[in-house]
Amino acid sequence: MTIRPASAEYGIWFRRTDIDDRDPLVPARWDAVETAPLCTRLVNHAGVSVSTVEHLMAALSGCGIHNALIEIDGPEVPILDGSAAPFVAAFVSHGLRRLRAPIRAIRVLQPVEVHAGDAMARLEPAEALELDFAIDFADAAIGRQHKALHMANGAFVHELCDSRTFCRQADVTAMQENGLALGGAPGENAVVFDGDRVLSPGGLRHADEPVRHKMLDALGDLALACGPVLGRYTGIRAGHALTNALLRELFARPRAYRVVLCDAATAAKLPGVGVGRADIAGLPRAA
Q1: Active-site residue, from 55, 66, 213, 240
Q2: H helices of 95-208, where?
C-alpha cells in the first residue's frame, strides 16, 4: 500500500492497483460505505471495494491530512498492529506538505442522534471536534469505560493513535472454529480479553485502551464526512455502522450542518495541527 499526496480539494481516494477491468477508484465517503461486520468497507459504483479503512482514515484525519491517493493491491487495508500508530509514524516522519488553499469543514448546527438497541451516537454543535465515548462489556478486564477529549493540539497522536482493536477469547475461538482468523497470535494485531484476564503478551498500552480504540474508530468513520467535522460526537456502545448512520442522518438534514471555510483560528483547532517528529517518539512502527 502506498499513500501519495494530492492537490487541494481532491479528498481521499483509494485506487485498487490489482483491478484493470473496472473502475479501480473508490471514494473515502460516507455514502460509499457498505454494511460489513466489525469494520468499515467502501465500495464504488462498479462493485470494487476496500475494507478495514477506519484505522488509516483515523490516522489521516488525526494528522490533518485531507487530500491523498491511497494505492492498494488488494481488498483490505493492512491491520498492522491493530492501531493507527504505524500510519501516524510514517506520515509524520516522511513530512506533510501544507497546501495553499482553505480547508472546508462540516460545522454541526443542530443536534442529530441515532440509536440501535442500547447503542447511541450523537453529533451536536461545538467550536471544534470533541469526542466522548462510553463502553460497557461483561468481561471484567474491560468493564465500563468512559473518555472525553478535545481533538486539538495533537490529542489523537498523543492519546488515541496507539490503542489497538480488541476482542474476546470466545470470539477468537468461534472464528477459528469457522475457519477464520487462523493466522497470527494474540497481541500481534489485537488485544484479546478473557474474563478478567488480558491474554495478549505485554498487556495493555493504556488502562482504558478499549474505549480509546473505540474513539479512534469513531474518528476514522467521521473522516468519511469528506472534511473535518466541527462538532461534539458522543458514542455509547456505538460501532462503525452506527457512526455511518449518524453521518447519513446529518447529511439528510440540510439545516443541521453547513460547509464552511476554516479561518485561521478554526484551522488551528483541527486534529493534527502542530504535530511534529517529537510527537511520534516511541510510537509503534510498521515492520
Answers
A1: 240
A2: 155, 169-177
* Residue whose entry in the numeric block shows the C-alpha cell 461483561: 138
Q: What is the pLDDT of residue 182?
A: 42
* Alpha carbons 67 and 81: distance in angstroms, whole number: 25
DSSP state of 141: T
Is 66 designated active site?
Answer: no
Q: Which residues, at least 6 apart from 70, have a Cβ–Cβ distance to it below 8 Å?
A: 1, 2, 3, 4, 12, 13, 14, 15, 28, 56
pTM for the predicted model, two decimal places? 0.94
Task: From residue 34, give the alpha-carbon distance in Å to each of 48, 49, 95, 256.
Answer: 11, 9, 32, 24
| Residue whose C-alpha is closest to residue 134's, from 126, 125, 122, 124 | 122
CA distances (Å), origin 43, targets 47, 61, 66, 248, 281? 6, 20, 20, 16, 35
239 three-class SS: coil
pLDDT tens for residues 49-74?
999 999 999 999 999 999 999 999 99
- Can you tell me which residue has the cell 488509516? 56
Segment 93-113 shows an average pLDDT of 94
